[in-house]
Amino acid sequence: MDEIKEEEQHCWICHVEYEKDDNIVAWGKCEEWFHRHCVGITAEPKAAYWYCSTCVKEQKKSERESVGDD
What we know:
Elements: E1 24-26, E2 33-35, H1 53-68
Antiparallel strand pairs: 1-2
């Protein structure tokens, strides 16, 4: 697991501080930390980066806009 920054010591959903051994995940794009159970993940993500639904929607919107620029 990546180093957790001092100012990021709580889950961004439940706002509860997490401990060293908690099952947490960081979003690959916005880099905020969450308890896995707070975002509906039951196991360690297999991908190198995990993206929240908000980041996925923003990425798809950005891709559609860039295709329209051609």
